[in-house]
Amino acid sequence: MNYEIKLTHGEDNLFVSSNSHYEIADTVVIKTEKYKVMGRIVRKVSPELLSDGYIVSQANALDFELAEKVAQDSDAAKITVKRLVQDHSLDMKVIEVKYTLDYKRLYISFTAEHRVDFRALLKDLASSFKTRIELRQIGSRDVAKTFGGIGPCGRPLCCSEFMGEFPNVSIKMAKNQVLSLNQSKLNGLCGRLMCCLSYEDDFYRQARKKFPDFGDTIKTVDGQARVIGLNILSNTVKARLDNQIQDYDVSEIEVV
């Protein structure tokens, strides 16, 4: 059986195999060729997907105790990383520093306006921590994924809860759903278009095909009218007829 795993740091989700059965949201210990980490099961996946590793066991009290120690050591390491970045006068902001459970790797994510030459920094980091260092420049969406938060819907951010890769999102998806094109309402905490705009885009693109466009003149049972609004979920069109505004079922109208 294969599972998709959400890691406790900002890395991409893992796909792992197991001979045992686990429930969604179980916290498990995972072993890959490179390291040992702890993560949370977000869903079962097809066995055809390539496995990144395997589940060692469900996390127990000792594992959580170790994870707490790793978190404390990671926080201490972050202070050192920030100091070394400052010593090298690099224009970069350290976002997250995280050891794996076996301390074989230290993940460091950062943001920067431009490409950063961190080769000299990397040597000092390797000398200071005596482990494999992975430096990764990330964007605003990855920052939101790392720290999490509450979205406009009132639920935890999708990217921090279950999402692996970020979907491609465009303003056209908002237009397909007849949403207000107010950026403050369409953007997530990361300042980019919300990922959830892509979830139902296929449905809205297909549904829009039977609807007229805004401003079209349509023939109704009451005469000709001009389209001023669409409600795809209720399958209705809002139209202005003389000085009146009326809703019509899309099956009752015809574009002139």
Automatic annotation (TrEMBL):
Gene Ontology cellular component?
cytoplasm
Entry-linked Pfam families: PSP1
Tell me where on the tree of life, at the top rank, the source sits.
Bacteria
Q: Which residue intervals define the domain PSP1 C-terminal in the entry?
A: 53-138
Entry coiled-coil feature ranges: none
Q: Which InterPro entries match?
A: PSP1-like, PSP1_C
The record ties this protein, via PANTHER family, to:
PROTEIN PSP1 (PTHR43830)
- NCBIfam families assigned to the protein according to its UniProt record, in alphabetical order: RicT_YaaT_fam
Q: What is the name attached to this protein's record?
A: Signal peptidase
Q: What organism is recorded for this protein? A: Pseudolactococcus chungangensis
